[in-house]
Every structure is written in structure tokens, then in C-alpha cells.
Amino acid sequence: MKGNEQLPASIRRWIASNRDRMTDLLLELVRHDTVNRVVDGTERECQHTLHARLQELGLASELYSPEEVPGFREHPAYYPGKDYGNRPNVSAVWKGKGGGRSLLFSSHIDTAAVAPGWETDPHAPYIDSNKLYGLGAYDMKGGLVASIMAVRCLQELGIELQGDVRIESVVDEEFGGANGTVAGRARGDHADAVIIPEPTNLALYAATRGGALWRVTFRGTTGLSFNGEEVRNPANDAARFIVFLEQHERERAKRTGPAPWYAHSKDTLPIIVTRLEAGDMGSPLCDVGPVECHVDIWVECYPGVDEDGLREELLAGYERFCGRSYEQGLQKPAFARMIRFLPGSEVDPGFPLLPLLADEIEAATGRPAEVTGSPFACDAFVFNAYSPSKALILGPSGGNAHAPGEFVELDSLDALTEIYAKTIVSWCGLSS
Fold first, then answer.
1. What integer best gives the mean pLDDT of the chain?
2. What is the pLDDT of residues 199-237, one digit of tens each?
3. 3.10.450.350, 3.50.50.60, 3.40.630.10, 3.90.650.10: which CATH number matches 7-208+344-428?
């Protein structure tokens, strides 16, 4: 870190003295229900709260509707079918004196749905054993708060920067949304580098996986064969397909991923059956087979794989698994997209923010930074494929994302705030 040699120690002391202010802000944000309802959402009140807090810091903060951004719906990454009439984004900037590089922290304010099994109110956060529990605390309001506290820390230490620091809070990231992020890019909110505070357990992700959520449909015939009719139960075909998916997931796990970010990955690329549907659910009894059977699946992939290629991989693999082709009578499943395809993305190993962040992670944690590809898909592709601003992912430690008992580790937020604050100084430059 360049600049004042006493600054790192001052930053660490400030963070230690301001834990309560950090937790208070995070508690306030988690109390807001910002569940993504897929087509619409409930982010508005929380975004207004956040906007007010950013204004209190003296940042030039704006609330804006994605629908009001010129070129939003025409943007090549825009995905139709969503309602943003009451779902504003927040965009704030801490202006530098000029001559330095700019840095953008891009977070999403929406959360996944409330999963079954919560033993407490997911929007009544609480702290226990240095962990803050609540829906969205880990994914990803904790990282958002760390970025805000980093700016507050530098301001209160009297630091002036050369380059601008931007903080944005976007709507509709969960469930393959990404249109909130698209709106920011269509609006022209760019920077020389981007940090996405998704939860990473303080690892640094220079790439993200992609993924597709499909409804796979098998069709057949129903009834009883009283007169020799041919009956084909699509549930049997669907069951065979599910067994194939399980085997295919194991086979993919044996192969290494693409270099450099996934060449040494030991994580399985998941193929998850998320829902099964067959038969007449409205009938009190069913004595015949269904005409259709639907299998909803989430399938992840590495950067460089497109949606058509991923689908063809499954179709060809299913043929091999069954030992016969579709031309020979094998039932060919129909694939229907349920959300946008999320392409994987990556940054060049020479991206200058990478070594800077790695050094700050090591300084804050006392261990070498883990620099790799993420085990999940997210909206980083919007930056890396559709904007001049390349994005890295670095966020807090915690657990139970998208599950009951979600929590973020408060010590990791302290470390993350330190990493962010020191990175801002090194990247944006101190104003003389």
C-alpha cells in the first residue's frame, strides 16, 4: 500500500472502534424484506434507507428506476418479463480530486426467497457468538455494508483521494435477474475496476461460473391398455434422465476446469433437480400415468460454455447413457428456459487490481490470498462481457446462503472493511 506509512494502523484502529456502527447499519438493512419475487420485488424501502445513509456520508447519491434509463430495454444483456416500476437502484459517488483511477463497489440488495426451516424471523436479525444472523446478512448486505464502512473510515481519517469511489446497490440479481446491474451499465456508471462483494469467505474470485435453469419435459400417452393400446409413461423416461444427470455430474467432476482460474478446482459442477411435476394434482386419485412429466434442473458450467453448448452436452450424454439415439426411438426431452442463461466470465490474469487485492487480503488475514474461480454464478458477466469495467469478487465469511439460519461472521467484515479501505487508497491514489 502506497502513501502514509501510518495509515494502515489508523485504518485498523478505526475499524476496531466502529464495530457497533457497522453492525447497526447491517441490522437496519437486514430488517427490510427485500426478497426477490422473480417478476417483481420488495427492495424499495431498503433502497430508500440506504440512499439516506449514503447522503449522510456526504456522497452524491441517487435513486433511479431502471425503466427510466435510456437504452435499458435495448441493452444486449437485458432480459424481458420483469417489473421495475417500484424497484429503484441506488448509485453514489465519493468524488476524488482528479488524476486517479476509479473504483466501483457493486452489490445487490435483493435476497433469495425465505427457505423452509427458519426457526426465527429471517427479518429480525440478531447477533450470537460473533455472527450476525438474518436473511441477506451473508448474501450480500454484509459486503455492501463493508464497502460503505470503508468509505466512512477514510473520510473520518481525513483522507482525500485522486480517483472516484462509487457504491451501487442494484435490484433483481437473484434468480438470474441481473437487469439491475444492466441498468447501471446502460446508464454509464463505469469505473476503472469493479469489486462485487458477494460472499467469498475472503477468497478472491477472478472468474465466475455460468448456469442454466431449464424445465425439461417428457411426453407420453396415458390410459389403460384394455385393447392393446400402447401406453408410454413419461415419468419413467424422466426417472431415467434423472439417473443420467446424477452420473453425468460425477463424470464432470473427474475433469479439470479451464485454466487459469479453474484448472485446480476440486468443486463439483452441480446439476440439481429442483422440482418434479407429473400427473393431475387436482384429482383426488390417479389410476393412470401422466401425459407429461416435467423435471426442473439447474446446471452450472465454466466460462466459455454457451447455453446451446450446455444443452447439447446433456442431450448427447443422455443418448450415450441410454445406448440408443433419438432417431432409434429414444424419447428426446424438450428444454424450456426458466430464467436467463447466466454465462460464466473471467478477467485476464494481468488485470492490475488482482495483485493489489491479493496483497491486502494477505496483510489483513495473515495468510496468502486464495485467488481462483468462484463456485457460483452471478452478475459479474454483465461487467466483464458488456462494459469497459472488469469485475473481481471479494466478500465476507459466513454460511447458509439461500438457507435457514443465514449468517455473516463479523470479524470477517472487519477484515473486509480493512481490505477495501486500503485497496481504495492504493487504487485511487492519495491526493497530495
1. 95
2. 999 999 999 999 999 999 999 887 665 555 677 889 999
3. 3.40.630.10
